[in-house]
């Protein structure tokens, strides 16, 4: 069976995010970018399914500007077979919103006819956690969100997904084709080695203009202002327990 994995290019998780002077968005110029960590986990799971013989071809897809191709090359270096770059100049953290991405991915699914679509459960830039659910809704497919374990049956007609919930581990079964979103503990992604990074340059990458799909990509939400969180106040020492209780009651207002 064929699997499609959607990946997103985001500001690297280790970078201290800076807000633009006009407070309209996060600063992305001259900032280190990388693959969204949850998307990386989804790619790794696709590779593991292929190694187990459940998946015959793994296709990675990304929506974004020219440099999104770098993220796709990373996924190809990890071991994906080929890539599709849906090219757009829209900011992927604000302007290209989950519904638009889900519509674009639905077109890719229509074109490639996969049995399984894997995504990260959310992106660390907008934290929307919506694209997977919207894609499943548009396709009319079952969805298992926040997967911490994924198993495919021998007949490749059903999947069993374990999900971490407040009460423990929840197991769900759903028929294929299906959409699965990856949680943090699904696996630990492999590193792309230098030889594989060189090989990735020769793997096929199809570039498609997002406008060619004829989809309304207009954002449904408007970002009014982006602000940095307030600086943390310094700690204070108190002389006694009574003094502490007094300050918690009358200053912090938490008692």
Characterise this structure.
With 255 residues, this protein is of the alpha/beta class. Helices cover 26% and strands 26% of the residues. The protein has helices spanning 37-51, 68-78, 98-112, 131-139, 194-200, 241-250, and strands at residues 2-6, 9-11, 33-35, 57-64, 82-87, 116-120, 143-152, 158-165, 168-175, 178-182, 205-209. The strands form two sheets. A nine-stranded mixed β-sheet has the order 9-8-7-10-6-1-4-5-11, sandwiched between helices. The chain has a two-stranded antiparallel sheet with strand order 2-3. A hairpin with a 2-residue loop joins strand 8 (158-165) and strand 9. Helix 2 packs across helix 5 and helix 3 packs across helix 4 (131-139). The radius of gyration is 21 Å and the shape is globular. The model has no long low-confidence stretch (mean pLDDT 93).
What's the SSE blueprint?
Elements: E1 2-6, E2 9-11, E3 33-35, H1 37-51, E4 57-64, H2 68-78, E5 82-87, H3 98-112, E6 116-120, H4 131-139, E7 143-152, E8 158-165, E9 168-175, E10 178-182, H5 194-200, E11 205-209, H6 241-250
Parallel strand pairs: 1-4, 1-6, 4-5, 5-11, 6-10, 7-10
Antiparallel strand pairs: 2-3, 7-8, 8-9
Helix pairs in contact: 2-5, 3-4
């Amino acid at each position: 069976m064929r699997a499609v994995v959607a990946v997103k290019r985001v500001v690297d998780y280790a970078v201290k995010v800076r807000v633009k002077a006009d407070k309209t968005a996060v600063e992305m110029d001259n900032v280190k970018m990388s693959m969204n960590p949850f998307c990386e986990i989804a790619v790794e799971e696709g590779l593991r399914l292929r190694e187990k013989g459940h998946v015959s071809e793994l296709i990675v897809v990304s929506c974004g500007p020219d440099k999104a191709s770098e993220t796709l090359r990373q996924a190809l270096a990890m071991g994906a077979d080929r890539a599709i770059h849906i090219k757009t100049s829209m900011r992927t953290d604000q302007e290209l919103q989950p519904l638009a991405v889900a519509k674009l991915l639905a077109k890719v699914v229509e074109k490639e006819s996969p049995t399984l679509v894997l995504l990260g459960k959310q992106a660390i830039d907008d934290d929307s956690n919506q694209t997977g659910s919207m894609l499943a809704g548009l396709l009319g497919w079952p969805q298992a969100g926040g997967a911490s374990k994924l198993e495919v049956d021998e007949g490749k007609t059903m999947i069993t997904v374990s999900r971490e919930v407040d009460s423990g581990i929840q197991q769900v079964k759903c028929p294929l084709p299906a959409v699965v979103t990856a949680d943090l503990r699904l696996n630990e992604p492999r590193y792309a080695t230098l030889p594989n990074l060189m090989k990735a340059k020769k793997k096929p990458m199809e570039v498609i203009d997002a406008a060619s799909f004829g989809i309304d990509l207009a954002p449904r939400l408007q970002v009014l202002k982006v602000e940095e969180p307030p600086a943390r106040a310094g700690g204070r020492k108190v002389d006694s327990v009574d003094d502490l209780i007094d300050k918690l009651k009358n200053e912090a207002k938490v008692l």
